[in-house]
Amino acid sequence: MRVLGVDPGLTRCGVGVIESGRAREIACLGVGVVRTPSTDELADRLMAVAEGVEGWMDAHRPEVVAVERVFSQQNVRTVMGTAQVSGIVALAAARRDLPVAFHTPSAVKAAISGSGRADKRQVTTMITKILGLESPPKPADAADALALAVCHLWRAPMSDRIAEAEAKAAQLARNHRARLADAARERGSTGGQQR
Amino acid sequence: MRVLGVDPGLTRCGVGVIESGRAREIACLGVGVVRTPSTDELADRLMAVAEGVEGWMDAHRPEVVAVERVFSQQNVRTVMGTAQVSGIVALAAARRDLPVAFHTPSAVKAAISGSGRADKRQVTTMITKILGLESPPKPADAADALALAVCHLWRAPMSDRIAEAEAKAAQLARNHRARLADAARERGSTGGQQR
């Protein structure tokens, strides 16, 4: 599976493409940052980020796009721009019929480092190791984009398995209810005979 | 001038088109709401809102788009969706070469009711009066979109006038500095003679 990870941002939007191979091997197909100057008008910046990220989608043809889920804990001005970019990225993916998955920063950290509270350095170290890169990806936004993509790859089979288990459980519950209903009906008819 | 006002939102995105006529007359060309079901996937909802708002842009061909500036004071989940939609609307406008202006809720309220703390009822009452509508626009998001457009229309000439006044003041300051420099030079030469 080929995954495009996007760490949304107005000033620096991290992008990274990975592909899962055999066993647990994952290859990094590309990583970078789409930048827009803070002196530009907001609408122009949004358009520039859209064009940049769409360029990555069209060049690498991912099967799924993983985007960081934005929380409003950070600086108000920053978080608004980040949310706007995340919306634009999700829109671009949806228009290409690509599924979009959102992962929280702590889920990403936990997936690749074992701790939801890992710092930026730890994330960069782990992503460099996991993807077998010669040097750590820079800036942090680029590393985060790759981490998002890897997180998606590793979480996806798990959520698929959960969905499968839930479907099985639901089927069992339906069977059980049907058997109970049958039993009740039988009891009803025999009960009639007993009277 | 024809203005499209957009009150961004995922569940209900208000849209309203107005046009300024002679004197202070403003006509309402259309008002409505783009809705997306909360049960749909986020990316699909964003795409549906984008298509809806773009439909309004293409049908009414506004010269400018006025969008509510989002703050992260509200509910975290809601504000993220709102910010994502505002980004998508700004992108759609920029791709049509339309200028985008952001106005804060309090600026909108102040522009049409005289108070930045006006409540929803007041805004609806005033927008109905200003546009000479037969009945108040519903829901509140639709009324807010029209209020945004009117706010833009009334603020735009003001900010143009402020810019003009500032340019004039800068020119006067330059003239004044030049005259001071001339005077100083003259004083310098006559001073030499006096010695």
UniProtKB/TrEMBL annotation, chains A, B:
<keyword id="KW-0540">Nuclease</keyword>
<dbReference type="GO" id="GO:0008821">
    <property type="term" value="F:crossover junction DNA endonuclease activity"/>
</dbReference>
<dbReference type="InterPro" id="IPR036397">
    <property type="entry name" value="RNaseH_sf"/>
</dbReference>
<feature type="binding site">
    <location>
        <position position="68"/>
    </location>
    <ligand>
        <name>Mg(2+) 2</name>
    </ligand>
</feature>
<dbReference type="GO" id="GO:0000287">
    <property type="term" value="F:magnesium ion binding"/>
</dbReference>
<dbReference type="GO" id="GO:0048476">
    <property type="term" value="C:Holliday junction resolvase complex"/>
</dbReference>
<dbReference type="InterPro" id="IPR002176">
    <property type="entry name" value="X-over_junc_endoDNase_RuvC"/>
</dbReference>
<dbReference type="GO" id="GO:0005737">
    <property type="term" value="C:cytoplasm"/>
</dbReference>
<comment type="subunit">
    <text>Homodimer which binds Holliday junction (HJ) DNA. The HJ becomes 2-fold symmetrical on binding to RuvC with unstacked arms; it has a different conformation from HJ DNA in complex with RuvA. In the full resolvosome a probable DNA-RuvA(4)-RuvB(12)-RuvC(2) complex forms which resolves the HJ.</text>
</comment>
<keyword id="KW-0233">DNA recombination</keyword>
<dbReference type="InterPro" id="IPR012337">
    <property type="entry name" value="RNaseH-like_sf"/>
</dbReference>
<dbReference type="GO" id="GO:0006281">
    <property type="term" value="P:DNA repair"/>
</dbReference>
<keyword id="KW-0479">Metal-binding</keyword>
<keyword id="KW-0238">DNA-binding</keyword>
<feature type="binding site">
    <location>
        <position position="7"/>
    </location>
    <ligand>
        <name>Mg(2+) 1</name>
    </ligand>
</feature>
<comment type="function">
    <text>The RuvA-RuvB-RuvC complex processes Holliday junction (HJ) DNA during genetic recombination and DNA repair. Endonuclease that resolves HJ intermediates. Cleaves cruciform DNA by making single-stranded nicks across the HJ at symmetrical positions within the homologous arms, yielding a 5'-phosphate and a 3'-hydroxyl group; requires a central core of homology in the junction. The consensus cleavage sequence is 5'-(A/T)TT(C/G)-3'. Cleavage occurs on the 3'-side of the TT dinucleotide at the point of strand exchange.</text>
</comment>
<comment type="similarity">
    <text>Belongs to the RuvC family.</text>
</comment>
<keyword id="KW-0234">DNA repair</keyword>
<protein>
    <recommendedName>
        <fullName>Crossover junction endodeoxyribonuclease RuvC</fullName>
        <ecNumber>3.1.21.10</ecNumber>
    </recommendedName>
</protein>
<dbReference type="InterPro" id="IPR020563">
    <property type="entry name" value="X-over_junc_endoDNase_Mg_BS"/>
</dbReference>
<feature type="active site">
    <location>
        <position position="141"/>
    </location>
</feature>
<keyword id="KW-0227">DNA damage</keyword>
<dbReference type="GO" id="GO:0006310">
    <property type="term" value="P:DNA recombination"/>
</dbReference>
<keyword id="KW-0255">Endonuclease</keyword>
<feature type="binding site">
    <location>
        <position position="141"/>
    </location>
    <ligand>
        <name>Mg(2+) 1</name>
    </ligand>
</feature>
<keyword id="KW-0460">Magnesium</keyword>
<keyword id="KW-0378">Hydrolase</keyword>
<feature type="active site">
    <location>
        <position position="68"/>
    </location>
</feature>
<feature type="active site">
    <location>
        <position position="7"/>
    </location>
</feature>
<dbReference type="GO" id="GO:0003677">
    <property type="term" value="F:DNA binding"/>
</dbReference>
<keyword id="KW-0963">Cytoplasm</keyword>
<dbReference type="Pfam" id="PF02075">
    <property type="entry name" value="RuvC"/>
</dbReference>
